[in-house]
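Much of our argument rests on the idea that a fold can be written as discrete symbols. The amino acid sequence and the backbone structure tokens for this protein are reproduced below:

___
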Amino acid sequence: MLSRHGGMKRGRAGAEAEVMSIMSRVTDRSADSPSEPEEVTVTVARRVAPGREPEFETWYDGIIGCASKFPGFLGAGILRPNEAGHDWHVVYRFADDASLHRWEASSERAHWLRKAEEFAEETGVQRVSGLETWFSLPGRTAPAPPKWKMATVTILAIIPLVLLMNVLVLPLLTGWPLVLRVLVFSGTLTGLMTWVVMPRLTRLFRRFLYGRR
């Protein structure tokens, strides 16, 4: 019994340390001081001429294939509109601003953009990095919210999640090695924040985050 109780205490201590680490990263990123290079995600909205969608998809494969050869390229995707005539969204990521700039300033990219002029028109561009990727709304090309607002909403999301995980998850991990407990805790928390909690909180608090923009 003492051993299991001690394991529980160590589990809670590990979880609390993980929470403090997360909260520290949130606070650090909300500051305006220079930080380490962060991944940059770019979303480009384009209006495709009716009937030219197959050409646009072929063009997308070509330009992303070209971008993938540049240092720092991390991946890309395409979001098709639900209805004809609405914008298509091309999303791509680079490891940092410098890598993104090399691609955006390249003659190869300029060549591919000229090819798209016949059948697609650019209607908006959004760049986000770090915490900002949690606060992007589909179809929104306005600037990211102020960092203090992003930090506030992130803290509101983390606190109840951590409480729930301490009650529901950590008791199941009693006796596990510390590294595995932290891995399960942080992996579950990150997954819930990225795919479940933050998309909903961003919509719920969009007036607070973006005002009336």
The first strand starts at residue 40 and ends at 48. The helical segments are 2-30, 53-67, 97-104, 107-116, 147-168, 178-204, 206-210. The CA atoms of residues 49 and 118 lie 9 Å apart. The chain has two domains: 2-34+145-210, 40-129.
